[in-house]
Amino acid sequence: MRVIEAAKGEKDMNIYIIKGSDIYDVTKLSSGISWSYDLDTLAATLSVSVSSGIFGVGDKIILKHGSREVYRGVIVGESGRHTKGFSCMDLGWYLNKNEVIVQFKKSTVYDAIIHLCNKFSIPVELPANLKIVKVTKIYKDVGVGDILKELLEMATLTTNNKYYMRMFGKVLAVRTFHREPIKISGVGLDYSLGRSIEDMSNKIIIVSSEENNKRVFAEAKDDKSIKNFGLLQTIESAEAEDVSKAKNIAKLKLKELNKITEDISFPCLGNFDIVAGRRVIVSNPELKGEYLVKGVTHNYKNDNNYFCDLTVERWGV
Questions:
Q1: Alpha-carbon torsion (78, 84, 85, 87), positive or negative
Q2: Ramachandran assignment for 207, one of left (phi > 0), alpha (psi -120 to 50 degrees), beta (any other)
Q3: pLDDT exceeds 50 at position 169
Q4: What architecture is the 95-176 domain classified under in CATH?
Q5: Least confident of 76-85, 239-248, 293-302
Q6: pLDDT digits 0-9 by tens, 210-241
Q7: I need a labelling partner for 223 at 20 to 30 A (CA). Which of 46, 52, 107, 159 fits?
Q8: Mean pLDDT of the region 283-303
Q9: What is the pLDDT of residue 11?
Q10: pLDDT value, residue 10
Q11: If we measure between CA atoms, which residue out of 81, 79, 298, 278 comes closest to residue 180?
């Protein structure tokens, strides 16, 4: 397993705004910048203040570190007059905002994702194992982002890999949680820990998705958890063609939901590679171990003041 060392002392941040056919370097007009990723959300957000009144909603924004493009998005909200505060979303926003009518008939998930993204001229980077997963379904008036999420959930049932989506510049990348972890530094004693059973389910029932069909396809439960916490039951529906996968669906869903949710939050030194869905290795004695990043906010103030605020959960627990 290869471990990527976190970069130290990131420098040379530049911010550009594209207005029409013109590109403006607004680095010296900008005061602080932060961008965030969340595991449950396709589009990453960015906030920045710019001392100029000529830019506004609809303009494009690019964040670069040296030759590396860190963020590309569109200004979706603004406030202020001479100094404006901008709220931005990356290009995944277009996939979330647009609804489509589309039919897939024995298509691979791989080809289905390419087909959807081609509609919006968004290139993709996909794992090859999505080619072995078939989908036959009609989607009507459904957001593209929601369809993509469902397609990857279908793929998980066949490959047993969990996937996440992320925009990297103009490209939508689908990746698994099993990529090599990032070794992070600068994690001190300033961390918080929260534990909850609000989202726990210890019994899963898979039933037919047909309105007049009450057939139960499969069940999975944890008697020990039920004894300790009481019955927490979730009912999931499945298409008729998924009957053969019903036991696996129930098993995977139970594994996902039958646990005490533990969220750990802490700051660390800035690293552009940290996004929701990546794993990180922490060497702090009190937190030592490997974690899955559920959410991260990058805070960049100047060349020597760049840090990340992470929310993570223990990996493999």
A1: positive
A2: beta
A3: yes
A4: 3-Layer(bab) Sandwich (3.55)
A5: 239-248
A6: 767 778 888 999 999 999 999 999 998 777 66
A7: 159
A8: 88
A9: 45
A10: 41
A11: 278
Q: Which tokens in the block code for residue 305?
A: 């003041």
Helix (H) or strand (E) holding 124: strand 124-125
Prediction pTM value: 0.84
In one-letter notation, the amino acid at residue 253 is: K
User: 161-194 in b/e burial notation, b at 16+ Cβ within 10 A?
Assistant: ebbbbbbbbeebbbbbeeeebbebeebeeebeee
Q: What is the mean pLDDT of the chain?
A: 88
- CA-CA distance, 269 to 284, in Å (whole number)? 13
Q: Quick check: 307 pLDDT over 70?
A: yes
Q: What is the CA radius of gyration of the chain?
A: 22
Spelled out in words, what is the top-level CATH class assigned to the domain 182-195+261-314?
mainly beta
CB 37 within 8 A of CB 166: yes
DSSP conformational letter for 242:
G
Beta pairing partners, 34: 47, 299
- Give per-residue burial for 88-127: e unless 16+ CB within 10 Å, then b: bbbbbbbbbeeebebebeebbbbebbbebbeeeebebebe
| Fold annotation for 12-89 | Phage tail proteins - horseshoe like beta roll fold (2.30.300)
Residue whose tokens read 């900008």: 30
**In the Cβ-directed half-sphere of 309, how many Cα atoms lie within 13 Å?**
9
